[in-house]
Every structure is written in C-alpha cells, then in structure tokens.
Amino acid sequence: VDRVKERKSLYLLPLIAVLAVSLFSLWSMGENRAQAAPKESCVSEKCHSKMGKEKFVHGPVATGDCGFCHKSEGKHSFKPIKNVGALCYECHDKLDTLKAVHKPVKDGNCTGCHNPHQSPNKFQLQAEGAELCFRCHDKKIAGGKFVHGPVAVGSCSTCHNPHQTNFPKMLMAAANDVCYACHGDKQDEFKRKKNMHPPVADRCTGCHNPHSADFKFNLVADSKRDLCFTCHVDKKDEIAAATVKHGGLETDKKCLACHDPHVSNFPKLLSAAPADSCMACHDREYKKGNYTVANMKEVLANNKDLHGPIRQKDCSGCHNTHGSSNFRMLREYFPALFYAPYDERNYKLCFMCHEKNLAKQEFTTTMTNFRNGNQNLHFVHVNKMVKGRTCRACHDAHGTNNPKHVRDAVPFGAWDLPVNFQKTENGGKCVPGCHQLFVYDRTKMFTNR
Ligand code: HEC
Ligand code: HEC
Ligand code: HEC
Ligand code: HEC
Ligand code: HEC
Ligand code: HEC
Ligand code: HEC
Ligand code: HEC
Ligand code: HEC
Ligand code: HEC
Ligand code: HEC
Ligand code: HEC
Ligand code: HEC
Fold first, then answer.
1. Which of ligand 8's atoms lies nearest the C-alpha of 195?
2. For residue 258, how far is its CA from the centre of ligand 7 (angstroms)?
C-alpha cells in the first residue's frame, strides 16, 4: 500500500516539477528560449522520429521536454550528461537513503536499468524480469537442475529490491521472513512444533539455494546425507569409524529415515518418539549375513515385563543407532556368547546403569538380591575364570514374561536351553537345562541337596 501511495505522489511531484521548470524557462530565459527548442524541432519525421513511440514513454519525454536533461551548448551540440543519478533525482525521490544501496544506484547508473526515454517494458526498464538482472549478473545462478518457483518466472524483485533496502543482499526482508512471505504454511508448521533445528532458525539458505540447485528442493547438497555431513562432520567420522554398521542408515531416505530436517516435537529432531522411530523398520525380520535380526515389535508385544529403558522408549540407552564397534551396535561392550571369563569390563553395558560390584564378592548382603543367605549367586555363576556365565545366560535385555527379566530359555548352540525360573517372596528357584532344581532364599540360606 505504501508503495502505491509513494508511486502516486511520485507521479504528481515530477509532473509539478516539469511544469514549473518549463514555465520558468519560458518566462525567464530569453536567451535560452531560442535553444530550448520547441517540441516539434526535436522530434519530427526526420529527427528522432522513433522517440515517444514505444509502449512506455518517460514522463518528460512524453511532454517533449528534451531540454531539461539535454543542455545545449550552441547549435545542436549537447553536453554529455555527467551525473545521470543527480539528474534523475531532480524530479524523483532519492533512492540511496537506506542502509544498503545497490551498487549501480549508488553509482548513479540509473540507465543501467532504465532507459531515460522509452521502452517496451514497464518503468522504461532496459529488459524484462530476470533478463534485466542478467545484464550484469551471472545467469548461472538460475541454471541449476531445480529452479525455485519465483526465479523460474524471472521474478527477482519479489525478493530483492532493485534500489535499496535495510537488509543484507538487497533483500526485501530479514533472513527467513523473505521465505515465509510465500511459505507461510511452513512458518505455521514450524511454530507448532517444539524443537527447531538451529540452522533452520538461523537461515533457510544454509540448506536451500534461493535461486536454483542441482538437488531436489533446491538443496545445496544431496538431502539424504551429504547435506547433513556438511555441518555434522563429527557424525560423518563416527559413522565411518563404526565396525558394526546399521542398515537403518542405508535406506533411500538415509538420515531422514529418523530425523526431520526442520522441526520436531521429539528430542534430537526425531520424526517420532525414540522407540517408535525404530519400529518404523523393526516391525519385521531382517537378514544380516546369515543372522536373522528379530522382529522387535513382535518381541516387545510378546513380553509383558519390559526392561526399564524400553518402558521409557529409550533404545539409545543401549544401542548407538549410527553404528558402533560393539556387537549389535551396543554402546558398550557386551559379550555375544553364553560363556566368558569374568572381567568387570565385559559387562560395561549393564554396569552403565546397574551396580558394577554385583558379581564381585563371594559373600554379600547388599550388592544383589540374587543370594542364598549371604552367598552371592551372581558371583557363583558369573565370576569364573573359565566358563563364567554371561548375563545373557539368564537375562533378556529387552523384556520377558518372568520377573527380573529372567528369560524362559536361552540359545545354547542349536538348543534353546530352558531356565524355568520361579520367583518367591524372599528368593526363587530354577530348574535350568544346566542343573537340577536349585532354590535360594535371601533371609535364610536354603540347603540344596
Ligand atoms: C530524463 C532525462 C532525459 C530526457 C527528458 C531526455 N533525455 Fe535523451 N538522454 C538522456 C540520457 C541520460 C541519455 C544518455 C546519457 C548521455 O549519453 O549523455 C540520453 C541520450 C540521448 C541521446 C543519445 C543517443 C541515445 O539514444 O542514447 C539522444 C539522441 C537523446 N537523448 C535525445 C533526446 C530527445 C530528442 C529527447 C526529448 C524528446 C530526450 N533525449 C529527452 C536523458 C534524457
Ligand atoms: C524533469 C523531471 C524528470 C526527470 C529529470 C526524470 N524523470 Fe522520471 N519521470 C518524470 C515524470 C513526470 C514521470 C511520469 C510520472 C508517472 O507516470 O508516474 C516519470 C516517470 C519515471 C518512471 C516510471 C515511474 C512509474 O511509476 O511508471 C521511471 C522508472 C523514471 N521516471 C525513471 C527516471 C530516471 C531513471 C531518470 C534519470 C535518468 C528520470 N526518471 C528523470 C519526471 C522526470
Ligand atoms: C538494478 C536495476 C535498477 C537500477 C540501477 C535502478 N532502477 Fe529504478 N527500478 C528498477 C526496477 C526493476 C523497477 C521496478 C520496481 C518494481 O517492479 O516494483 C524500478 C522502478 C523505478 C521507479 C518507479 C517505481 C518506484 O519504485 O517508485 C523509479 C522512479 C525508479 N525506478 C527510479 C530509478 C532511479 C532514479 C534510479 C537511479 C538512481 C534507478 N531507478 C536505478 C530497477 C532499477
Ligand atoms: C547495471 C548492472 C547491474 C544490474 C542490471 C543489476 N545489478 Fe545487482 N549488482 C551490480 C553490482 C555492480 C553489484 C555489486 C557487486 C559486488 O559487490 O560484487 C550488484 C550486487 C547485487 C547484489 C548483492 C548485494 C550484496 O549485498 O552483496 C544483489 C542481491 C543484486 N545485485 C541483485 C540484483 C537484482 C535482483 C537485479 C535485477 C533486478 C540486479 N542486481 C541488476 C550491478 C547490477
Ligand atoms: C525467493 C527469493 C529470491 C529470489 C526470487 C531471488 N533471490 Fe537472489 N537471493 C536471495 C537470497 C535469500 C539471497 C542471499 C543468499 C545468502 O545469503 O546465502 C540472494 C542472493 C543474491 C545475490 C548475491 C549473490 C551472493 O551469492 O551473495 C544475487 C546477485 C542475487 N541474489 C540475484 C538474484 C537474481 C538475478 C534473481 C532473479 C533471477 C534473484 N536473485 C532471485 C533470494 C532470492
Ligand atoms: C515469491 C514467493 C516465494 C518466496 C519469497 C519463496 N518461495 Fe520457495 N517456492 C515458491 C514457489 C511458487 C515454489 C514452487 C511450489 C511448488 O512447486 O509446489 C517454491 C518452492 C520452494 C521449495 C521446494 C518445495 C517443493 O515442494 O518442491 C523450497 C524448498 C523453497 N521454495 C524454499 C524457499 C526458501 C528457502 C525461500 C527463502 C529464501 C523461499 N522458498 C522463498 C515461492 C516462493
Ligand atoms: C538443515 C538443512 C535445512 C534448513 C536450514 C532448511 N531446510 Fe527446508 N528442507 C531440508 C531438507 C533436507 C528437505 C527435504 C525433505 C525431504 O526430502 O523430505 C527440505 C524441504 C523443504 C521444503 C519442501 C518439502 C516440504 O517439507 O514441504 C520446504 C518448503 C522447505 N524445506 C522450506 C524451508 C524453509 C522455509 C526453511 C527456513 C525457515 C528451511 N526449509 C530450512 C533441509 C533444510
Ligand atoms: C548448516 C549446518 C547444518 C546442517 C546442514 C545440518 N545441521 Fe544438524 N545441527 C546443526 C547445528 C548448528 C546444530 C546444533 C549444535 C549441535 O548439536 O551440533 C545441529 C543439531 C542437530 C541435531 C541435534 C538436535 C538436538 O536437539 O540436540 C540433529 C539430530 C541434527 N542436527 C541432525 C541433522 C540432520 C539429519 C541433517 C541433514 C538433514 C542436519 N542436521 C544438517 C547444523 C546443521
Ligand atoms: C535409524 C534412525 C536414525 C538414522 C537413520 C539417523 N539417526 Fe541420528 N539419531 C538417531 C537417534 C535415535 C538419535 C538420538 C540418540 C540419543 O538420544 O543419544 C540421533 C541423534 C543424532 C544427532 C544428535 C547427536 C547425538 O549423537 O546424539 C545427530 C547430529 C544425528 N543424529 C545426525 C544424524 C545424521 C547426520 C544421520 C545420517 C547420516 C542420522 N543422524 C541418521 C537416529 C537416527
Ligand atoms: C529405516 C529403517 C530402520 C530404522 C528406522 C531402524 N533400523 Fe535398526 N536395522 C535396520 C535394518 C535394515 C537392519 C538389519 C540390516 C543391517 O543392520 O545391516 C537393522 C538392524 C539393527 C540392529 C542389529 C544390528 C546388528 O549388527 O546385529 C539393531 C540393534 C538395530 N537395528 C537397532 C535399531 C534401533 C535401536 C533403532 C531406533 C533407534 C533402529 N534400529 C531403527 C533398519 C532400521
Ligand atoms: C538395556 C539395553 C538395551 C536396550 C534398552 C535395548 N536393547 Fe536391543 N539389544 C540389547 C542387547 C544386549 C542385544 C543383544 C541381545 C542378544 O544377542 O541376546 C540387543 C539386540 C537387539 C537387536 C537384535 C535382535 C536380535 O535378533 O537379537 C535389535 C533389532 C534391537 N536390539 C533393537 C532394539 C530396539 C528397537 C530397542 C528399543 C525398543 C532396543 N533394542 C533396546 C540391549 C538393549
Ligand atoms: C540405560 C540404563 C540401563 C542399562 C544399560 C541396563 N539396564 Fe537394567 N534396568 C534399568 C532400569 C531403569 C530398570 C528398572 C528399574 C526399576 O524399575 O526399578 C532396570 C531393571 C533391570 C532388571 C530388573 C531389576 C528389578 O529389580 O526389577 C534387571 C534384571 C536388569 N535391569 C538387567 C540388566 C542387564 C542384564 C543389563 C545389561 C544387558 C541391563 N539391565 C542394562 C536400566 C538399565
Ligand atoms: C544364573 C543366572 C543369572 C546370571 C548369569 C545373571 N543374573 Fe542377574 N539375576 C538373576 C536372578 C535370578 C535375579 C533375581 C534375583 C531376585 O530378586 O531374586 C537377578 C537379578 C539381577 C538384577 C536385579 C538387582 C539384583 O542384583 O538383585 C540385576 C541388575 C542383574 N541381575 C544384572 C545382571 C547382570 C548385569 C548380569 C551379568 C553380569 C547378570 N545379572 C547375570 C540371575 C542371573
């Protein structure tokens, strides 16, 4: 609205100026009067005959007032116009009052863009749309495989002011507001979500080229991964260094299989709650070499008593989704086998969250509840130099139907060795494939025969 108003007043001001100047020159300058040639003498069939014939004719040219701009020095000899900008400003508002002024405007090179007389283009422009800008700027910026909507139709001035602005890069508005002017739907979507990716808040052009690019959505690099690695170099290194790689990173969507590039209601820009984002894929089995990765959705559905972190939907408590150098992409070491010699470091994974002295001492009344009297049964099973049972011999890390995450059975070679655990008030009993019925009681040692 302001621009329209401006334009209207602009229309009037120069008109008054032109009238005043012409009246003044007619009235006062007797000497000049002879040379301030009457209209007919400049534009006739013989001379300057094309002047005023194009679609858009500049105001003073239309009124035939050549003399305002061309001062004669005698017989049809005209001084070259030295400072075109200053000349234009005689009738037009100054265009160099804001913080940033376009170089040609600053230089007074108005005719770099406007024909002073006439043109087939509106505002007597030297060319139309983007072609005007390409008189001085490299066309390459619009030459990518994917061209942004407004650039494709040559509309540079929807984002850039050709004369002056208060914002960097001759933009019409501050940073992302330029984009939101048209992508208001995105602004609304972004506002509704809790967490914004810092570079999005910073500037859209960190990832999107506003003009054109060789990648879909005008991205400055391949959206799927290379784009992310341009900033997340440490992630790139971490993923490259992992010896146990995750197939989840290798689908078509690459990083976007789990992350939203802009905003999210979940931590770490995940597209869904942490565990749910895993289930987008882990609702079926996968082959990895000759090993079959279990259908986790089914595993969790079939086990009523889920392990603490899983109840909190936190798979990342144990797995590093981007890959790791431990078995099953675990964050810390965990033995893959049924037996392992005792070493506290073998169970680093579990000891991230649990008592690390649970299998250290033969006798205890505090370190564990897996006791017969004060005899530590974790010590008995786990703490051996040869054939120490690993945690997996009795526990399942995801969930079980038995209390204390004791499993029904454990793979032992080709056999599913049953555990047959039963919890009692002060202890429990089991008849595993390994030995006969054993009972334990914390309050009063039970004597097994
Ligand atoms: C608003 C100012 C303005 C008015 C009014 C104006 N000119 Fe010009 N004219 C210019 C400028 C600026 C140039 C280019 C700068 C220079 O070469 O000195 C120019 C250049 C010219 C040239 C040189 C060749 C060319 O086309 O570039 C001719 C001839 C000319 N004008 C004729 C006229 C005639 C005839 C009129 C009146 C019908 C007229 N001008 C009115 C500003 C004006
Ligand atoms: C003698 C006074 C005068 C001078 C000097 C002058 N103009 Fe103008 N200009 C006018 C008038 C009068 C109009 C017509 C107003 C209208 O139609 O809105 C006009 C219109 C324009 C328009 C079109 C505006 C529109 O809204 O359509 C442009 C662009 C323009 N002039 C640029 C220039 C440039 C560039 C120069 C310097 C080379 C210049 N003018 C010098 C008086 C002048
Ligand atoms: C880089 C190219 C460029 C230069 C240089 C330039 N203009 Fe413009 N000018 C434009 C364009 C493009 C428009 C049309 C704006 C629009 O579409 O809203 C325009 C419009 C105008 C208008 C009419 C509309 C308005 O904004 O009021 C005037 C008057 C004008 N210019 C004067 C000038 C003067 C005076 C100079 C030199 C001091 C100049 N221009 C230098 C590109 C330029
Ligand atoms: C007459 C020549 C000319 C034309 C036509 C022209 N420009 Fe420029 N433009 C320049 C020059 C010179 C610079 C300064 C370049 C530099 O500093 O490297 C510049 C700089 C710019 C910049 C960068 C400003 C900054 O802060 O870095 C933008 C954006 C720009 N022009 C946009 C446009 C657009 C959009 C158009 C068409 C409406 C256009 N230009 C037409 C000459 C022109
Ligand atoms: C959708 C808005 C938009 C459109 C349309 C647009 N630009 Fe830009 N342009 C920008 C933004 C935003 C920047 C600043 C980029 C940055 O900061 O990385 C920019 C920067 C520039 C620059 C400065 C180059 C640089 O790398 O610093 C030039 C020159 C330029 N644009 C010219 C044009 C031309 C010519 C057109 C029309 C073909 C055009 N622009 C259309 C938004 C736009
Ligand atoms: C003048 C309006 C306008 C402005 C300003 C604008 N855009 Fe666009 N943008 C469009 C149009 C029109 C399309 C094409 C829509 C389509 O193809 O569905 C588009 C498409 C896009 C697309 C691709 C979307 C798709 O579905 O293919 C992205 C990404 C985009 N714009 C980002 C930006 C960014 C970043 C900015 C700010 C630098 C910006 N836009 C500013 C009008 C605009
Ligand atoms: C960190 C990089 C990054 C930043 C910063 C970024 N985007 Fe995107 N944007 C992307 C990626 C990646 C895609 C492609 C999404 C896909 O493939 O599903 C995309 C797609 C889009 C699309 C088209 C698809 C859609 O979701 O509708 C639009 C529009 C868009 N972005 C707008 C914006 C706007 C506006 C901003 C600034 C407020 C912005 N983007 C900032 C990375 C980014
Ligand atoms: C322009 C640089 C840039 C690009 C490109 C980029 N990021 Fe980021 N990203 C950041 C910055 C800065 C942070 C905040 C600091 C940090 O955590 O490293 C961040 C943080 C994150 C976070 C953690 C958010 C949190 O809540 O802690 C995730 C996840 C993320 N980015 C994923 C991605 C993905 C996926 C891509 C590719 C689609 C991507 N980033 C592309 C700069 C970038
Ligand atoms: C299979 C799902 C998945 C894929 C694919 C994925 N991530 Fe993540 N990403 C996650 C999860 C889950 C977290 C949260 C980890 C946590 O809470 O410790 C995360 C966290 C991050 C973080 C935050 C820092 C951190 O490590 O906690 C960054 C940065 C990140 N991812 C970048 C990427 C990049 C880059 C890609 C593509 C190479 C990618 N991610 C692919 C699931 C994924
Ligand atoms: C985009 C699909 C996808 C998503 C999402 C996904 N995964 Fe996977 N995951 C796979 C595929 C495919 C495999 C088997 C092939 C492979 O790893 O090479 C796999 C294998 C695994 C393995 C076994 C690795 C091994 O070496 O034995 C674990 C553990 C795993 N994923 C955990 C997770 C966790 C935790 C999440 C959520 C944070 C998750 N995955 C999300 C696709 C996905
Ligand atoms: C307390 C640690 C822990 C948590 C939390 C955890 N896992 Fe695991 N996960 C493991 C361990 C340990 C293994 C190796 C089990 C084995 O070989 O007996 C494993 C194995 C896997 C496997 C390979 C399955 C197979 O075939 O044996 C997948 C897939 C998997 N986890 C996905 C997930 C998902 C999805 C979540 C979140 C819902 C999750 N994990 C949470 C510790 C955990
Ligand atoms: C990320 C932390 C974390 C890791 C790693 C972890 N756990 Fe847990 N564990 C928990 C939480 C939380 C609970 C629930 C405690 C509660 O409900 O009081 C729990 C409960 C248990 C229980 C049942 C305890 C009870 O008193 O009911 C057992 C058994 C168990 N975990 C075994 C393991 C084993 C074996 C490992 C290694 C494979 C392991 N945990 C790794 C966090 C973890
Ligand atoms: C021989 C089977 C067996 C093995 C091997 C075993 N546990 Fe247990 N664990 C149990 C039983 C049974 C309980 C339940 C004790 C009770 O509350 O009655 C238990 C309880 C626990 C608890 C709950 C807290 C406590 O100590 O009472 C944690 C935590 C735990 N085990 C972790 C581990 C870890 C870590 C490993 C491997 C280092 C491991 N267990 C090895 C059988 C075993």
1. 26
2. 15
Atom of ligand 7 nearest to the CA of 190: 38
Q: Is 329 in the pocket of ligand 10 (CB under 6 A)?
A: yes
For 142-157, b where at least 16 C-beta lie within 10 A, e where not — what string?
bebeebbebbeebebb
C-beta 104 within 6 A of ligand 4: yes
Residue nearest to atom 37 of ligand 5 (CA): 156
Q: 32 pLDDT band (50/70/90 cuts)? A: very low
- Read off the pLDDT of residues 329-378 as tens digits, 9 standing for 90 and up: 999 999 999 999 999 999 999 999 999 999 999 999 999 999 999 999 99
Residue with tokens 């061209």: 147
Cβ-in-10-Å burial (0-12, 13-18, 19+) of 62 comes to middle
- 261 CA distance to ligand 8 middle (Å): 8
pLDDT at 202: 94
- The pLDDT value given to residue 73: 79
Q: Is 211 in the pocket of ligand 5 (CB under 6 A)?
A: yes
Looking at the predicted structure, is the pLDDT value of residue 11 above 70? no
What local confidence, expressed as pLDDT, does residue 335 receive?
Answer: 92
Tell me the per-residue pLDDT of 225-278, one tens digit each, with 9 for 90 and over: 999 999 999 999 999 999 999 999 999 999 999 999 999 999 999 999 999 999
Which region holds residue 44: left if phi is over 0, alpha if psi is between -120 and 50, else beta?
beta
Cβ(170) – ligand 3 distance below 6 Å: no
Which contacts qualify for 10-19: CB closer than 8 Å, 24 or more apart?
A: 10/92, 10/93, 13/91, 13/92, 13/93, 14/59, 14/60, 14/91, 14/92, 15/59, 17/90, 17/91, 18/59, 18/60, 18/63, 18/65, 18/68, 18/91
Measured between its terminal Cα atoms, the distance across the chain in Å is 97
CB atoms within 10 A of CB 215: 19
- CA–centroid distance, 92 to ligand 2, in Å, is 7
Which numbered atom of ligand 8 lies nearest the CA of 261?
A: 38
Provide the pLDDT for residue 38: 42
